[in-house]
Design goal:
Blueprint lengths: L4 H22 L7 H20 L6 H17 L12 H23 L17 H45 L4 H5 L1 H37 L3
Length: about 220
């Protein structure tokens, strides 16, 4: 195994997560400070989301960890001269594949072989069993692929736009003359894109978390 940029920055994300835990959880105060308030509000939102989608609080630590680590990894990439692990499709796909395997094992643990009944909708004619099972099997595999691809595609697209506009703004800024003055417009756009990318980073982490909750719910409460 080799140490790559993805490896290094995922380790950074874990260290930041650990620091946030130490500061806001273990050393938290009765009257929360600024960062503690942010963490508590975020945690409360995750708790509500898990209870709404799964109805069991024991899955909160898993979903909370997924959300916070993805948020940190996404936000790291906005800092100049850094690297975004989640922009690599293999990172997102590895996480989504792990979740797919986990929810499948969870379904078998809860229902045994009856878990396979979800492959065949109730009341369906037996003559269509092969077709329906095949479609449902493909849709289950698509969950694992789409979860990671969606994350990587959105992060990569935003970063490419950010890089192109930044390069354009820098070229105008160093051109001299009236072009340098006009560079204020692309610079303002870059600032706006930066704020937008921060929002996208958090939204994509939340989408990944809520879809994970939905997949877990399908294994906990079989239909």
């Amino acid at each position: 195994m080799s140490i790559t940029n993805s490896t290094i920055y995922m380790i950074y994300a874990l260290l930041i997560y650990h620091v946030l835990y130490k500061i806001n959880i273990e050393r938290g105060t009765l009257v929360p400070g600024r960062w503690q308030s942010v963490i508590e509000l975020t945690y409360g939102q995750i708790v509500n989301m898990v209870m709404d989608n799964i109805g069991e609080g024991k899955y909160v630590p898993l979903i909370w960890t997924i959300f916070l680590n993805l948020s940190i990894m996404n936000l790291i990439g906005i800092v100049p001269y850094t690297f975004t692990p989640t922009a690599h499709i293999i990172v997102g796909f590895g996480m989504s594949l792990s979740i797919l395997i986990g929810v499948t094992l969870l379904g078998f643990d809860n229902y045994g072989s009856n878990y396979l009944a979800m492959m065949m909708p109730g009341g369906s004619p037996i003559i269509l069993a092969f077709l329906l099972v095949g479609i449902e099997f493909v849709s289950q595999l698509a969950k694992g692929v789409s979860l990671g691809v969606r994350l990587a595609a959105n992060i990569t697209a935003g970063h490419l736009l950010f890089a192109i506009l930044s390069g354009f703004a820098w070229t105008m800024l160093t051109a001299g003359g009236i072009i340098t003055i006009l560079s204020i417009f692309p610079i303002l756009i870059v600032v706006f894109i930066t704020i937008l990318e921060m929002a996208v980073a958090l939204i994509q982490a939340y989408v990944f978390s809520i879809l994970t909750s939905i997949y877990i719910n399908d294994s906990v409460h079989i239909h």
